[in-house]
């Protein structure tokens, strides 16, 4: 079958929207999904900054949502017409997967970032027959259609706004999962979130939905204003004595902190803002060595990396849509939609901080 997709052909050039070809229908355990909308994630854009690691040319996109149009057999558990949110890929049989931690799959990097499954090679080509990289995050959903492993597709209620749901499979999942799963935050807890982008604001929403007090730290006044609308206490990242200010706001220090920035300075500030036994979670990729200042890990404080919100998407996505229905997780307010043909404009707006979460509509 032939359909439109946004292809990245080099690490420096813009996306080109062109015709691509999928040479076979779903294999056993796969489903073909017609994409209704796909979020643009910072990880998609980071491909440019890690030139040479992720193979090109490729169709990126890994926050897809759509309608199942064909299945690779009844054992998929899905049927044509089902509405689904697409998650990250995992092998399903390593220790991490079997232990309910698919984000820590032994093959996570290989399956999602560096080439996909060998059996996918050659099935996905451009109009001239040139090979495109196997499925990005098991999806390559900057396209009208995506072929995915059925185990990575989460069925959702068809009454939900399907075109907006894709970011629940990664960006919003990561922020919310860090708070709800990794931290287990609840009433009476305090959560300081460093960086009020899509992941950070999802963490803020999850914290307030769980009954915790959230503090949002960012350098953009409009992001701080939005965090305040979500019932967080806004704090400018350049505030003098930032850790002391957060400790005052949280009655002696935050129990939990989440850094979405990858900034060494803010990571040290976050550690200093924690109360004894506090936990700092990191979700951003570090691009330089992290030097921790003396005393930051004293008194039982700890630091860990959190991948995909420690989530099982099939459990967390329905929880988040339920919170949305209850008015407690208004993720739709973070979204601006663009036609897929305007993908380069969406990328520019995202990089400039003009939009929190772009969603591309094929």
TrEMBL record:
Keywords carried by this UniProt record: Membrane, Metal-binding, Oxidoreductase, Transmembrane, Transmembrane helix, Zinc
Pfam families with a match to the protein in the record: ADH_N, ADH_zinc_N
SMART domains associated with the record: PKS_ER
InterPro entries cross-referenced by the UniProt entry: ADH-like_C, ADH-like_N, ER, GroES-like_sf, NAD(P)-bd_dom_sf
Protein name, as recorded: NAD(P)-dependent alcohol dehydrogenase
Domain of life: Bacteria
CDD domains to which the protein is assigned, alphabetical: benzyl_alcohol_DH (cd08278)
Phylogenetic lineage: Bacteria, Bacillati, Actinomycetota, Actinomycetes, Kitasatosporales
Keyword Oxidoreductase tagged: yes
Family: Belongs to the zinc-containing alcohol dehydrogenase family.
Classification via Gene3D superfamilies: Medium-chain alcohol dehydrogenases, catalytic domain (3.90.180.10), NAD(P)-binding Rossmann-like Domain (3.40.50.720)
């Amino acid at each position: 079958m032939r359909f439109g997709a946004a292809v990245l052909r080099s690490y420096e050039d813009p996306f080109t929207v062109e015709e691509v070809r999928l040479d076979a229908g779903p294999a056993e355990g796969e489903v073909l999904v017609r994409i209704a909308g796909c979020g643009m994630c910072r990880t998609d854009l980071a491909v440019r900054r890690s030139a040479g690691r992720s193979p090109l040319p490729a169709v990126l996109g890994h926050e897809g949502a759509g309608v199942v149009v064909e299945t690779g057999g009844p054992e998929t558990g899905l049927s044509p017409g089902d509405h689904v949110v697409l998650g990250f890929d995992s092998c399903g049989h390593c220790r991490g997967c079997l232990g309910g931690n698919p984000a820590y799959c032994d093959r996570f990097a290989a399956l999602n970032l560096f080439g996909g499954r060998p059996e996918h090679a050659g099935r996905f080509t451009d109009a001239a027959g040139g090979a495109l990289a196997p499925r990005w995050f098991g999806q390559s959903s900057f396209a009208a259609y995506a072929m995915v492993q059925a185990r990575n597709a989460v069925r959702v209620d068809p009454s939900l706004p399907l075109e907006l749901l894709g970011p629940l499979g990664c960006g919003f999942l990561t922020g919310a999962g860090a708070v709800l799963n990794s931290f287990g935050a609840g009433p009476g807890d305090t959560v300081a979130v460093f960086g009020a982008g899509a992941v950070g604001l999802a963490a803020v929403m999850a914290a307030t939905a769980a009954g915790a007090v959230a503090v949002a730290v960012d350098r953009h006044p409009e992001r701080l204003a939005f965090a305040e609308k979500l019932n967080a206490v806004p704090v400018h990242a350049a505030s003098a004595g930032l850790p002391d200010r957060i400790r005052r706001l949280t009655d002696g220090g935050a129990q939990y902190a989440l850094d979405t920035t990858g900034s060494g300075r803010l990571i040290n500030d976050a550690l200093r803002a924690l109360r004894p036994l506090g936990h700092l979670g990191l979700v951003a990729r570090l691009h330089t060595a992290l030097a921790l200042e003396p005393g930051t890990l004293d008194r039982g404080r700890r630091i860990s990396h959190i991948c995909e919100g420690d989530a099982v998407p099939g459990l967390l996505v329905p929880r988040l849509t339920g919170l949305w229905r209850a008015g407690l997780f208004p993720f739709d307010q973070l979204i601006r939609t663009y036609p897929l043909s305007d993908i380069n404009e969406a990328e520019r707006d995202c990089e400039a901080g003009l939009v929190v979460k772009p969603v591309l509509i094929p």
